[in-house]
Amino acid sequence: MTMENSYALITGASSGIGLEIAKDLAGRGYNLILTARRTELLESISKEISEANNVHVDLISKDLSNYDAPREIFEFCEYKNYKVDILINNAGYGIKTSFHETSIDDEEAFIRVLGTSVIMLTKLFIPKMLEHDGGKIMIVSSVASFAPPSAIQPLYGPIKTFMNRFSDGININYKRKGITSTAVCPGFTTTGFHTASGVQEEMDRVPRFMVFPASRVAKEGVDAMFAGKSIFIPTKTYRAIVFLTTNLPQFLLRFISNMLAPGRYDRN
Predict the structure, then answer these.
(1) Residue 98 maps to a domain
(2) By three-state DSSP, how is residue 162 classified?
């Protein structure tokens, strides 16, 4: 049974964790608005999810590195009169080149997708959630937000740390008004992210016990969002790792990090 005119908006919904979140929410009866860059893939996914779960699924193809994309997504929902009760800020990617080799434009686009667009979408949709007396927000962050600075993708971890703090700020200001934000911080997850980001070689060197399927991360993350948790780390394995990350001396932490995730902290 669908939840009439109750929608979840999911960015980066064409693959990986975003796609699995879409499937999970559809299975719980939520109508969906999916957004990503690849129109044909979105169309195929939308049809498949809709038919499998008897929910309404709409899509809008947008690149969140474009300044106007968040507002265009919001205006699309307003035009269609969709009541967005759940906002999933999931879109993200990694930069393949070293920091000194990456153009300023590419770095700015990266920050816009992982950071600025999250803030803009949240700012646009919160007033509507206030009108409806509540809402749920998820920001897909990363355990990289707790880890030592990485030798690859040096901006990724700091941006995710910023997103965790932003999520905390939303809760401080709006939780008493029925709106909660959950920063979901997965570890290594089986998706196309690492191949697209040019770090698949490093991913292949990670011990198998540290790699989890996107479907599990999505389900645990959605459960945590509905429970109103502020920050959530999927799987007991990564909760233990983050505990060590935040309590071990830095020299010992870096040594262990090099053992468990070779290439991320020892690349020249």
Answers:
(1) yes
(2) helix
pLDDT of residue 36: 96
Strand 57-61: give its sheet, edge to edge: 57-61, 31-36, 6-11, 83-89, 135-140, 179-184, 231-232
What SS3 string covers 220-268?
Answer: HHHHHHHCCCCEECCCHHHHHHHHHHCCCCHHHHHHHHHHHCCCCCCCC
Only one residue has tokens 């830095």, namely 250
Burial class (CB in 10 A: 0-12, 13-18, 19+), 245: middle
3-state secondary structure of 176: helix
Return the pLDDT at 140: 98
Span between the terminal Cα atoms of the chain, in Å: 54
pLDDT band at 28 (very low <50, low <70, confident <90, very high): very high
Reading the block at residue 77, the tokens are 């929902």
State the CATH number of the domain containing residue 51: 3.40.50.720
Q: 18 with 10: CB under 8 angstroms?
A: yes
pLDDT on residue 262? 54
Q: Is residue 266 part of a domain?
A: no
Question: 217 with 186: CB under 8 angstroms?
Answer: yes
Backbone angles phi, psi at 152, to 5 degrees: -120, 150
Strand partners, 86: 8, 136
Q: Is residue 265 part of a domain?
A: no
Report pTM.
Answer: 0.86
Predicted pLDDT of residue 68: 97
In a domain, 161, yes or no: yes
Using the predicted structure, report yes or no on whether residue 160 has a pLDDT greater than 50: yes
